[in-house]
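Researcher: Here's a chain I'd like modeled. Treat it as a single chain, no partners, no ligands.
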Amino acid sequence: MINKYNFNLLGEYLFKRICRDQEALQRERPRNNYGLFINSKDLQKYVWDYYNIGIDEDGLPEAEINKPFNNYWDESDGEPQ
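Model: Modeled as a single isolated chain. Structure tokens:
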């Protein structure tokens, strides 16, 4: 069953992979129109890796994998200002 927690985990995984690969690719590729070094094929590979290999097989350090996010996009940040 698909639930929003699974999507949050996928989003967290994608964010970490994008951040890591942005640094690695900045010397290999030009920026695209959105200012990123990654492209759509990279994102497709990340999703494939997540569902077929697993979150723990992507080469991220163990401490970074288990580091929790404080809030997900659908949770409140606290008191409105």
